Amino acid sequence: MGGKESKEKEPREYDPNFGGPMKNRGCTDIACCALFLFAIAVYVCMSILAFWYGDPLVLIYPKDSLGNTCGRDNTGTSGGVDLSSKPYLFYFDIVQCSKVQEVIQNFECPTYHICVKSCPTSYFVGYLDVVKYTLLGNSSELDLTKYILLRRCIPTIIETIAESGASIVSGAIQIVDQYGNSSSKLSFLNGTAIPFSLMQQVGEGLSIVFGAYVFATEMLDDIIDSYRQILGFFLVSMFVCFFLIFLMRWIAGLIVWSMIFVVHLLLGAGVYYSYNKWVELKSSSTVNSDPENFQLSTNLDYYKNLEKTWLYAGIAMSVLLGILLLITCFLCNRIRMAIAVIKEASKAVRAMMAVLFFPVIPWALQMAASLYALVLFTYVASYECASGKSCTGNLNITSNLTKYLGTEYFKYYNYYNIFMMLWIQNFIIAVGQCTLAGAFASYYWGRGGAGWFPIISSFYRCFRYHPGSLAFGALIIAIIQFTRMIVEYIEKKLKLSVNPMAQFIMCACKIYFWCFEKFMKFINKNAYIQIAVYGKNFCFSAFNAFFLILRNAARVATITAITAFLFVLCKIAVIAIVGAMAFLYFTGDIKIDYLSDDLPNLNYYWSPMIVILIFTFFIATIFFDVYDFAIDTIFICVLEDLERHDGSKEKPYHMSSTLMSALSVKNKFKE
């Protein structure tokens, strides 16, 4: 074992039979594949039970103040009654539903509520008084207006208050009291007039709510009316991304060197400005530069007028400028290599344009997995109530619904549901990355020729031979993510703790697991590249990838930093270009034949713009993530190429002439 490890830590040796992704390969990590299939089988069995016995509508069925579900027979519970004939819920003080925090915590309005046969037909003005309520009483005869939302009676008088609160207070709107008599003023059941300040607060609050409703409705109408224009700008955003990736073959070097020059220029300007400010303040007699008179202040102008501020700022920027100059000088060749790899990746993406659309499939599958987990969650939550067992618990979101129904198995079902969702999502990501890696590796080792349908061939190899290895890598990330969720939950529980040591430990754990997850995702990504190329198991591939990166740490750091900043600029550029075009179009500042005539009348021109910008960011992220992965794959292939070959006739380089020129290497036999 030790000999094998020491061998793998050394550079790879030349293999005359190697010419790209291995065609002859076998299945890897079969045990983990079997474990993954077994976990999915358990997941499916759990889903069948939940779908068979569950009823998610139970979760939205209203309950009265005693915990009885409206529209159901609750006689099987302690103290429950048959409310099958009373499916609707009536709130005695509907205004209390405006207390958002309590509603979110308890998933119900903090007011007395009862089940009724039907929502009453006129409004009851005495609802604020204490009302004696029995489940077997004539609760259905209360006098209220009819307005139903998810089986909950909402008085239409609320909308009237929102539209004209002042008219209600002045008595301009007629209200029917509990006896059916017309009343010009709102009053309690005992005849006491409702204070003007109370009605003013209620009116203002409800006006905001309904104003927001109208605003949201108008925005939705704008989006629906302009859906064709939105789809058109989606195509524009794709074209802009295509164009930028296509241009990277020629402008990558210009952008990178310009970026480096601008950073040095800004730091130099900062040093010059700090020096001038320091000289100016030092020579000024009105400024007290004695360090002993220094004091803390929330006024930033105080620090701006201290000579020490500019002295320290100038020193810091001078040191940083010197370090960056040294790094630029010593890493100049590595920067040239990074630029060459970026250009080569641009050619690879252009040669296989289908790879840009491939990530849509894994993304859709991830969304489907999340949606499935959410649906299963609702079915599991409703399982016991739907099966006719005890149903007296209350739904409590803040405790992850573990209090609902009072079942001890419920939380374990959902823990497993969450874990499987994480595992499946990470498995889908692994398949997508391994597939892309195989396609780009085929392009590199095939010297620009990836063969027919490289995506399909790569996907077949991944799914046919390596589902176990991909499931292994996904399992590691899922365990880390699940552990992070547990740590987050424990930290929320300890927020009320006054023990600073416990809070410090939990904060340290959060930081550690966050960093550990990022590190393992980086290792996994490079391991998937190794799996796609060599067809080895996960541990062997991760081990090789780690030491390959370790042997080329400076090159990896350089290309990672450059591509990260470059893609941030590219995403900003795409969003800015598409956003500017959308703004000019929807405001009518630019006229386009046929398109301008079809422009709908909008309430807010920025409504469709928001949707366009969101989806533009999504499209740019997908496209440039693929480009980023192409750079990573080709970079790993370049490192492998440098270690395996020396440019001789027996060991020729597989890289392009552009890469050989940037790396100052060449195939000697061509001379």
Note the total helix count. Answer: 20
Mean residue pLDDT: 75
**Number of strand segments:** 6
Taken in chain order, the helices and strands follow as HHEHEEEHHEEHHHHHHHHHHHHHHH
SS content category: mainly alpha
Question: Overall 3D geometry?
Answer: globular
**Order of strands side by side in the largest beta sheet?**
2-1-4-3
Describe what this molecule looks like in 3D.
The structure is a single chain. Helices cover about 60% and strands about 0% of the residues. With about 675 residues, the protein is mainly α. The strands form two sheets. The protein has a four-stranded mixed beta sheet, with no helix packed on it. A two-stranded antiparallel sheet has the order 5-6. Strand 3 and strand 4 form a beta hairpin. Helix 16 crosses helix 17. The longest helix is centred in the middle third of the chain and has 57 residues, at about 225-285. It starts with a helix and ends in an 8-residue tail after the last helix. Residues about 1-5, about 125-145, about 155-185 and about 385-405 have low confidence and may be disordered.
Give a nutshell description of this structure.
The protein has 671 residues and is mainly α. 62% of the residues lie in helices and 2% in strands. A four-stranded mixed β-sheet has the order 2-1-4-3, with no helix packed on it. It has a two-stranded antiparallel ribbon with strand order 5-6.
Topology, element by element:
Blueprint: H1 2-8, H2 30-53, E1 88-91, H3 100-106, E2 113-116, E3 148-149, E4 152-153, H4 157-163, H5 165-170, E5 175-176, E6 182-183, H6 196-225, H7 227-283, H8 300-304, H9 307-330, H10 332-351, H11 360-381, H12 383-386, H13 410-445, H14 454-465, H15 467-493, H16 500-534, H17 538-551, H18 553-586, H19 606-644, H20 657-663
Helix pairs in contact: 2-13, 2-15, 4-6, 7-9, 7-10, 7-18, 7-19, 10-18, 10-19, 10-20, 11-13, 13-14, 13-15, 13-16, 13-19, 15-16, 16-17, 18-19
